[in-house]
Design brief:
Number of strands: 5
Oligomer: single chain
Number of helices: 7
Helix content: 40-55%
Shape: globular
Length: 134
């Protein structure tokens, strides 16, 4: 697995990510990787005030609440949102990102991944954070 900030060689490049005002939009896989190991604190330390999660990702996590074994994952995400660690964003019809989101979905990209990438059309200081297999 590799963490990518599309167009960056490394996520930990301090000049590009840690010491900047880039807004970071997390997809499901990336966010889940930190929640599963109970380490959202790492993201909070590095990117406080700059972390965004698409509503579609919150919706994807909500399916876990049906399982008594895994509902804590969804609850941890909601707690992080309520504590202000993440700001929930959404793409609406007519937004600059809307057409890009639909184009990416037609290419079989995931909903969260498509939203994170498409938000670059909306904000110029955004960096999607996506985990993918290499």
């Amino acid at each position: 697995m590799r963490i990518s900030c599309l167009g960056m060689s490394r996520m930990c490049n301090r000049d590009l990510v840690c010491n900047s005002d880039l807004k970071l939009v997390f997809d499901n896989d990336c966010l889940a990787s930190f929640i599963w190991i109970h380490r959202l604190d790492i993201l909070e330390t590095l990117y406080k005030g700059r972390m965004y999660v698409p509503q579609i990702v919150v919706d994807e996590f909500s399916f876990l609440r049906r399982s008594s074994k895994y509902k804590w994952v969804y609850e941890d995400l909601l707690a992080a949102i309520q504590q202000g660690q993440f700001t929930v964003i959404d793409i609406k019809v007519g937004d600059k990102a809307f057409d890009e989101y639909n184009r990416l979905r037609k290419q079989n990209k995931g909903k969260g991944e498509s939203t994170a990438i498409a938000m670059r059309k909306q904000w110029t200081t955004i960096q999607p954070v996506i985990i993918y297999e290499i």
